[in-house]
Amino acid sequence: MGVTTITATDPKRLNTANFITRMERPLVLEVWYPAAVSITEKPNQTLATYRDVTRLLKPFELQGQAYRDAPAVAEGDFPLILLSHGFTGYRTQMFYLGEHLASHGYVVVGIGHTDSSNAEVPNADARPAGFISTLYNRSRDQQFLLDYFTEQQTPVTAIVDTDNAAIIGHSMGGYGAINTIGGCYTFTSEMLQGFGMPAALAMVMPWALNSCNGGREQADPRWKAVQLFAPWGGENNVHDPAAMAKITVPTFYFAGDQDNTSGYEKGIKRLYEQTGSKENYLLVFENARHNIGPHPAPAASFETDFELGHYVDPVWDIETINRVIEHMSLAFLDCHVKADPARCDYLPAIENAQQYKGENRQYRDPWKGFKHLWGSGLKFYRQNAALNDEQPEQD
After folding, report:
1. CA torsion angle for 229, 232, 234, 236 (degrees, to 10)?
2. Residue pair 205/185 in contact by the 8 Å Cβ criterion
3. In Å, how far are 1, 35, 326 from 39, measured between CA atoms?
4. Domains of the chain
């Protein structure tokens, strides 16, 4: 696969500094795609190195497996997948997943959400403006980019399929993605003041924020699936439950049941239970916290416990989480975006399959694609109208 960096600019986004004027909003993007790269003969290409800074502005770089600026394959129809990072994240935060999906026939776009990155929000002084911009722009960025890759010339124009698209969002990326597929916002002035916004601004913000579908009147039918890693907003009742119940896009929630940022029982799990999709899944990493999506910790993050906490989990090995995410994400997207019924078999038909025991109380293999015992610490839930009356009982 290949990877390249481009910039897409919305020429007339509402300015969140005053909510009156309009301004250009540039978005720096990392794009992974199927490339014309020989396996037997290495081309004169360079493997990608992903560079960014920690929240303490410490620079780091990580080695990837994609070839930088390699030519794309000449033809094909590869679905568009957007990777939307959390507040104070960056476009390559889930590069491992971008590379993995591109190697299996997707065009994947890591979004650098302006005003919301590590480099732009390094301290408390920068947080208020960045947070306001994130609340307003996250869903609009996602919808804008689906239109952008449909209408504008890009390095992947000849091969990208924008009629079959999906969003993968972590934290604030998930908060925005829920809105993009129909989960309308329900902000109040009191709620926003509770987030620390000045009263005068909090009075204006609900008018600007409370919209649906990334600013559209109706959800875009090109969205075929959404993955939500530790999405924010459930504990604060940010999304309208009635609108959530009307969502029809297949959804897959990923959560740690000790999430200390988005919350689990009254946060992520509540959102999952409110979602009306007939194909609705939840995978829980037992005892994990909020940072279940990003790549493993760079060396620079080990300088402080504060920064390291954004990359490591006290219980889980992040590389193990990454491998589980790769496997389940590919199965979900192949099933619901590529509409491949054979790949749907990799999504468990029953809840908590790893808890089924055979003779002598030995754990059976968990769901399809997992080796013996490798479902330990995972819980799987699904809401599927076609299966509700057919799920087998536990042994």
Report:
1. 170
2. no
3. 10, 11, 22
4. 2-347 (3.40.50.1820), 351-395 (no CATH)
What single letter denotes the amino acid at residue 72? A
Position 1: which residue type?
M
- Token pair 């994400």 is found at 329
Collapsed DSSP state (helix, strand, coil) of residue 378: strand
For residue 74, pLDDT over 90 is answered with: yes
Residue 241 corresponds to which tokens in the numbers above? 């439950």
Residue at 296: amino acid letter: P
Q: What is the pLDDT of residues 302-348, one digit of tens each?
A: 999 989 999 999 999 999 999 999 999 999 999 999 999 999 999 98
Cβ(158)–Cβ(72) below 8 Å: yes
pLDDT tens-digit series, residues 24-46 = 999 999 999 999 976 555 666 78
Whether the per-residue pLDDT at 385 is higher than 50: the answer is no
Q: What are the C-alpha distances in Å from 212 to residues 56, 154, 185, 208?
A: 34, 28, 7, 11
Looking at residue 352, what is its pLDDT? 56
CA distance 185 to 178: 9
What's the pTM? 0.93
Residue 392 has pLDDT above 80, yes or no: no
Question: Encoding tokens for residue 152?
Answer: 């504008």
Greatest C-alpha distance within the chain: 69
Q: What is the DSSP string of 198-245?
A: -HHHHHHHHHHH--SGGGSSS--TTEEEEEEES-S-TTTT-B-HHHHH
Output phi, psi for 333, to 5 deg: -70, -40
Q: Helix H segments across the chain? A: 95-102, 127-151, 172-180, 189-194, 199-209, 241-245, 269-274, 305-308, 318-336, 341-344
Tokens standing for 85? 């990072």
Contacts for 126 with CB less than 8 Å, ≥ 6 apart: 120
